[in-house]
Amino acid sequence: MGEGVDPTQMCQSLVDKVAQSKQLMAITDPDLLVLFEDWFEELEDEILSLNTKHGPLSPEELAKKIGLSLRGATFLLSKLNREQKL
After folding, report:
1. Is the pLDDT higher at 34 or at 61?
2. Residues 6+ positions from 56 with CB-CB distance below 8 Å
3. How many CB atoms are located within 10 Å of the residue 81 CB?
4. Is the pTM above the cut of 0.70?
5. Domain range annotation of the chain
6. pLDDT recorded at residue 61
7. Which residues contact 51 (CB under 8 A, 6 or more apart)?
8. Phi, psi (5° rounding) for residue 83?
9. How crowded is the C-beta side of 12, counted as CA atoms within 13 Å?
10. How far is residue 19's CA from residue 51's CA, in Å, rounded to a whole number?
11. How many beta carbons lie within 10 A of that of residue 63, not counting itself?
12. Confidence at residue 1, expressed as pLDDT on a 0 to 100 scale
């Protein structure tokens, strides 16, 4: 049997699901959604900090630095670019 739940793997899976479907918000418990949004904001802040420190990062570099899947990193970079935060 495994050693338990890997929180990084769990978070990567959640980011991937959000990127795939906006329906997640319709079925998520409101308390869980608040926790997810807080975690998402922390990730965005970390990305902005890394961008300031190291300059623009590729999705591959970002995924490696913060432990996200390539899809999750690409999604977050796209979101921050759309919001003109990067």
Report:
1. 61
2. 86
3. 11
4. no
5. 53-86
6. 94
7. 57, 86
8. -85, 5
9. 15
10. 22
11. 20
12. 42
Burial 37-62 (b: 16+ CB within 10 A, else e): eeebeebbeebeebbeeeeebebeeb
Q: Give the other-Cβ count within 10 Å of 82's Cβ.
A: 9
- CA 1 – CA 9 distance, rounded (Å): 17
Token digits for 62? 């970002």
Amino acid residing at 77 = L
Residue 45 structure tokens: 């802040």
Place of tokens 């623009």: 56
Sign, Cα dihedral of 69, 56, 49, 35? negative
The count of other CB atoms within 10 Å of the CB of residue 26 is: 7
End-to-end Cα distance, the chain? 43
